[in-house]
Amino acid sequence: MTLSEDQLLWLEPTLDDLGDLTESPSEYASRVQRLLPNFPEQVLIQWFLEHDGVIDEHAGLDYQNLRFKLAQFGPEELGLPCLAEHEIITQYRDHFLRGVHSPQMNRLANYMRVNRTWPVPPLIFDNPDGRFVASWGLKYSRPFDLLEGHHRMALLYAFGLHTEGSHSVWLVQKDPAHNPAFKQTPSEAA
Questions:
Q1: What's the CA gap between 140 and 133, in Å, rounded?
Q2: What is the pLDDT of residues 170-179, one digit of tens each?
Q3: Side-chain half-sphere of 169: how many Cα atoms within 13 Å?
């Protein structure tokens, strides 16, 4: 069941008259988890709280039927064109390599130079059959689509870290009960 417009509005962070948050990140996550208990706190904070407009943009994914698991992506997955050649990622990467830096990119770059990975796993939608379409009409890429973490991914490619080991990601999947194309392994079904 897709969330109603009122429910989607309720997921938005509460702001005061000056546009400042009126709840802490953990208070926000706790409130929203009443409607979306399937979302880990970290995912709610990094995706919905930190990015304006994404709640409506991705509502067609049917939030109540998503599941999240931490996974490791190595050179094989990170080398796929759907990620390595993603238009926004390459744009941010190229800006960074040309010396166009923002405070956000500088903080991330400093962290990633030292730690050789990102500080928070990005959100990657598992779309193996390519059948999911954004609520505003754009087809999600196949077999993966980056939902959140464009700056982190851009820096990973800029530093060549995509070829070094594996990196944690939040793999976002449709619940198997609501996605007949998704096949569980016997260990996941148990």
A1: 6
A2: 999 987 665 4
A3: 27
